[in-house]
């Protein structure tokens, strides 16, 4: 097994720690969900069940400490490189951390409902992780998940390595690579239970980045704004070409100033055709 992993490990994959024993998992919270055909732009924003409590408050003391340490590190590094436009701790917590935590219940509920298995120890890939959002936050909140952070910029990967080390996470690997190349790498192609992405690109482009990495029967979850209905409709062809279909749109109550957010859930029905993803840069220049 070790030899196989060694053969599959490219030189730009960072393994700060080996995967270890994971602690007890979080209780599943049930968000309000909507099927795609039930949503329209007139009624969507008024159909929300608001949460008064923060998901952050469900975390253990250790997990809260890890989150705070991550946020402090993020703001320190942000002084010498562009990781986020937000400069205050409270704003980072509301705008980024809570927003990332908000997609956990939709992932859990959809995976259990449609993948016919538990989601205690799933493999998750965060495409275009940037400063570690949402992937690093998910890894802290769900220590049983094996999380891969994919980021093409070396300096951001250096930050991610440092943040993983400081927070003591043993369930994370950082991969410096473009999503288009990773999707054609047989060590990563269709190897993940769930792919997530936040603030990376529109759905037509994002589908080509993420779905080739998802196994058949797995999920692709995109964190979007309060009303992504038109964007989803425009991406239906691209999603289908990648071997998936839109399963549901889950409304989540973010604690950020932007309020209502949506998790777009796609189910991988078939293998992605070998020609996808296309060459680096092509998906963004020529969206399907």
Automatic annotation (TrEMBL):
GO terms for cellular component: cytosol. The keyword S-adenosyl-L-methionine applies. It comes from the Eukaryota. Keywords: Cytoplasm, Methyltransferase, rRNA processing, S-adenosyl-L-methionine, Transferase. It holds the Pfam family GidB. GO terms for molecular function: rRNA (guanine-N7-)-methyltransferase activity. The keyword S-adenosyl-L-methionine applies. HAMAP family: 16SrRNA_methyltr_G. PANTHER family: S-ADENOSYL-L-METHIONINE-DEPENDENT METHYLTRANSFERASES SUPERFAMILY PROTEIN (PTHR31760:SF0). This is Methyltransferase-related family.
């Amino acid at each position: 097994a070790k030899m196989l992993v060694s053969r599959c490990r490219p030189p730009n994959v960072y393994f700060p720690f080996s995967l270890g024993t994971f602690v007890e998992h979080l209780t599943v919270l049930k968000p309000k969900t909507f099927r795609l055909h039930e949503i329209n732009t007139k009624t969507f924003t008024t159909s929300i069940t608001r949460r008064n409590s923060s998901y952050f408050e469900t975390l253990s003391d250790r997990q809260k400490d890890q989150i705070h340490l991550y946020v402090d590190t993020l703001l320190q590094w942000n002084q010498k490189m562009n990781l986020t436009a937000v400069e205050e701790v409270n704003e980072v917590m509301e705008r980024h951390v809570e927003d990332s935590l908000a997609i956990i219940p939709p992932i859990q509920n959809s995976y259990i409902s449609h993948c016919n298995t538990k989601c205690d120890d799933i493999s998750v890939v965060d495409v275009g992780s940037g400063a570690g959002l949402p992937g690093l936050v998910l890894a802290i909140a769900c220590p049983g998940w094996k999380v891969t952070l994919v980021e093409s910029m070396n300096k951001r990967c250096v930050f991610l390595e440092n943040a993983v080390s400081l927070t003591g996470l043993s369930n994370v690997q950082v991969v410096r690579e473009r999503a288009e190349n990773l999707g054609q790498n047989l060590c990563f192609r269709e190897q993940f239970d769930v792919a997530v992405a936040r603030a990376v690109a529109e759905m037509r482009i994002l589908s080509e980045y993420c779905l080739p990495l998802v196994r058949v029967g797995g999920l692709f979850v995109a964190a979007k704004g309060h009303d992504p209905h038109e964007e989803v409709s425009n991406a239906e062809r691209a999603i289908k070409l990648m071997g998936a279909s839109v399963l549901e749109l889950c409304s989540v109550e973010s604690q950020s100033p932007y309020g209502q957010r949506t998790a777009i859930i796609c189910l991988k029905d078939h293998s992605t055709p070998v020609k996808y993803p296309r060459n680096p840069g092509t998906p963004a220049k020529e969206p399907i």
